[in-house]
Amino acid sequence: MNGDMSDADNYWSNAVRPRIAMLQTGFYHQGAEAANTLQEAVDAELTAMYAAITAMRSVRNTQAAIRRLPPEVLTRIFWFCSIQESPSPYSSRIRYGASELWQRWEPGWMKVTYVCRYWRDAALQDPRLWGSNIACGLPFSWMEETLKRSKLAPISIDLQYRSSKSSDFFRLLAKHLYHTRHLAVSGDYGRDLSPVVETLVERAPIVETLRFEQPTGARKSLPDEIFARYAPLLRQIVLVNWFLPSAVCPELVSRVEHLDLQLGSDEKFSENFHRSDRCSPYNQMLFTLQQMMVLKTLKLKMSLPPCVAGVFTSRDYVLNMPQLEQLELEDGTAEIALLLEHIQIPATARMKIMASHSTFDEVYLLLAPQLHRRLQAAPTPAHALSISCDAMNGDYDISVKVKAWPSVPSKETEGNTTLDFEFNGRRGTGQNATAPCALHQFCRALSVDAVSWLHCKLYPVVDWKRQQLVDLFTGFPVLESLTVYKSTGAPRDGPCIFHFRQEALREHCHLTAASRAHARAI
After folding, report:
1. Within a domain: residue 222?
2. 52-67 burial, b for 16+ CB within 10 Å, e for fewer?
3. Which DSSP letter does residue 487 get?
4. Domain co-membership, 331 together with 374
5. Can you say whether the dihedral through the CA atoms of 333, 339, 345, 347 is positive or negative?
6. Residue 183 — pLDDT band, cuts 50, 70, 90?
7. Which of 2-6, 190-194, 266-270, 430-434 reaches the highest mean pLDDT?
């Protein structure tokens, strides 16, 4: 062969032309049957030529710019692909030419392993890539295969449990607990997660996050022997319709920084929820929280024991949570008030309260004093306040929302509230029977005298009279800036805007001459 690589056209022409001449000579004028033989011979030649072209393309691909990327860079790119496109069940559309598996499932990011041998080898040689992308949504064989490819790398499992899972699946899950870093299991509607949870009795030395979510069904306790009571790196627990065992091991939860317990309101306020097998007493819950010495975020949604006889056996107990940064409570008013009475949290911690299934009288008597103490303990008095009040029809008669900030909030600081409170429930009696009076009494109980910036949304318009607004705003003696949405007694079919004149605002609210009080009606 001539060593000159510049004359490819002549080379391939000279190589192919004799083959074409031989075919034409050998089968020329040989009859109809010979024509079929000629076609078969030509097809064989074409197959060989296609193979040569494929080989030449492979040579070309080896010199592509992406081939100069090292495997570790490629797998980093693949990891970003996996975030964008996970394997999933495919639509009913037929995918011709695909394997039997990919006719029913969408490979997602794993398509990159079919591009070329170099890409495939790079992917297969990085266990971390597979560990963060266990194919829980694909058939069992693929989940098993991705677990094998992860080798000893930390793995993340996000599993949607269905009753069709076999015992082999449970054994596989338990087998790989030793290198599971993130574990999330959720059930289909009406599915019981107990068969999955009961298999998690092996040690989990590197597990950091745990999430069990069961949409419906009776609330259940995690097994006492979960993770063989050994999960020293566990940092985050999220349980939906599950709760921690009464004999929780301190070593299991001592490093937990985030705890989120959720329960459906229908289950929480059922008649028999206070039974000992459905909820733990308050002192048991406080004891469990006491083991979480570094807890930073605590979220309890309908998860507090109900305030009935026997649920709280140590009323003098006080739980100190010195490192808590965020507290979110959603429950009945009495339950929230009882918990706040028995915990101590830093004055700088953010607090979000959502109370329901009670009357505004309970909010005024039980919660308002707790919230007042919270605001008084804040390192900086509340200078900005947002109030929303709506008297509704239907399941709830009144909705009240109050947010307090140490300074006027911006888009960036709107979430940094000193207090975020919401109540949805029934109206009170007496002085709390109407929305304007209830809100007035509530603001007085909070005693937010330092507020200079006030933002109000008051509905419905017909419930609010001019004097009621004046009474409400008089409770803020240093008010300087006021924004009012939908205020005063305008006709129902007319404009729902009330304009404060600066002179009237100064007169009715007794502002000093130095104040630049202004009200904007929007």
Report:
1. no
2. eeeeeeeeeeeeeeee
3. -
4. no
5. positive
6. very high
7. 190-194
